[in-house]
Amino acid sequence: MKIPNKPADRFDWTLAFILLLFFLVSLFAIASAQTTGQYKIDTVPKNFVPSQIQWYFIGCVIIAITMFFEPDQYKKAAWVIYGGGVFILALLIILPDTMDLVSKRNGAKSWFHLPGIGSIQPAEFMKTFFIIGMARMITVHHEKFAKKTLKTDFFLLGKIIAVLFLPLFFIMMQTDLGTGLVFIAITAAFVVVAGITWRIILPVFVGTATIGATLLWMTLYAQDFLQNKLGLRPYMFERIYSWLDPYSYSSNEGRHLITSLNAIGSGEVFGKGYKGREVYVAESHTDFIFTTISEDWGFIGASLVICLYFFLIYHLTKITLELKDPFSTYICAGIIAMITFHVFENIGMTIQLLPITGIPLPFISYGGSSLMGNMLAIGLVFSMKFHHRTYMFSSDDDE
């Protein structure tokens, strides 16, 4: 049986339709996020909807360009792509704050300011570059060590940590804890799918969980040690305290979480209707856009958005299982981990399930860097699916 080889047959129309739904949800949510109160008073200095349309258009161009290249080409250029991303992250740290090229927000030095374009956050693109580099490294390792042993698994784990080290180091130098957690989550997923024996994974995960629990305990009872010995900053402690007990910090750090909970709760089951918002939540068009959706459309609307993400993850997982090329499989697995963690963390922080971090809601939150970075990742999935069918058809002919 021959597999259709026409471009239209190999294009993933289902994934494109899912992106279209996210596009519509994003525009409606951002438009509503810019109004609040009975008289619909503007809460932001400009209309972000046209800008979001522009970013989506650029994202579609990125997908088209990304689809042009085949998986083998990405595999060959993986270390160049990874190294280029690390270089840009390092450049952001090296350049002085006084330069107009560097943009600093809330104490975080994480953006380049490009004239005519605006602020671009390199870390958003580095996530995908990191996935490409990690997928290449694991694939080559398995090709070299076809026979698995405890020694080769330890060696692979060491290489995974080594690939993580540089981008994570420069991200933490930017004091961007949220993005750092994304890289750790992607790495954890790679450790699982790389086939490392559970005799190694289990102790590593248990040890990591123990360290995390210890740090949380020390945050509550040994702040001086963490601040003086490990160099943690006071705002990091305040975020933990305001997460655990926001009403005791309602005048500062806890206020954001309280307004988020009030907005989501006030939507009740069916919401207040489009642009019916009454609770002002800061950054409601970016990191806290889920509060806008919940207040406008209530539990039903918020649940439908979560189901849309489940549908996206399910479809990406289905694609991953269909792929035969290990490199393509690892690429898709890393992208699934990245998107899943983003959604879980973003929604979790708005409902007090997790501490607040500066992580946007994929494909819905306003933001050029975040959207373009996610579209780049999705473009890779389109490419893997598109060219995978070509390879299968060709191999059938050869036989």
Report a brief summary of the structure.
With about 400 residues, this protein is mainly alpha-helical.
- Structure annotation, total helices: 15
The assigned structural class equals mainly alpha
Distance between the termini: 12 Å
The number of distinct β-strands equals 5
Helix content: 55-70%
Q: Unreliable stretches, pLDDT < 50, 5 or more residues? A: 37-44, 390-399
> How would a crystallographer describe the biggest sheet?
3 strands, antiparallel
Q: Indicate the proportion of strand residues.
A: under 5%
SSE string, helices as H and strands as E: HHEEHHHEEEHHHHHHHHHH
Shape: globular
* Averaged pLDDT: 87
Radius of gyration over C-alpha positions, nearest whole angstrom = 22 Å
In the sheet with the most strands, the strands line up as 3-4-5
Q: Return the domain count.
A: 1
Task: Write up what this structure looks like.
By secondary structure, the chain is mainly alpha-helical. It has one domain. Helices cover 70% and strands 5% of the residues. It contains 15 helices and 5 strands. It has helices spanning 7-10, 13-33, 49-68, 71-76, 78-94, 122-144, 150-173, 177-193, 198-221, 223-229, 234-244, 253-266, 289-322, 326-350, 368-398; strands at residues 35-36, 41-42, 102-105, 108-114, 118-120. A 3-stranded antiparallel β-sheet has the order 3-4-5, covered by helices on one side. A hairpin with a 4-residue loop joins strand 1 (35-36) and strand 2 (41-42). The longest helix has 34 residues, at 289-322. The model is unreliable at 37-44 and 390-399 (pLDDT under 50).
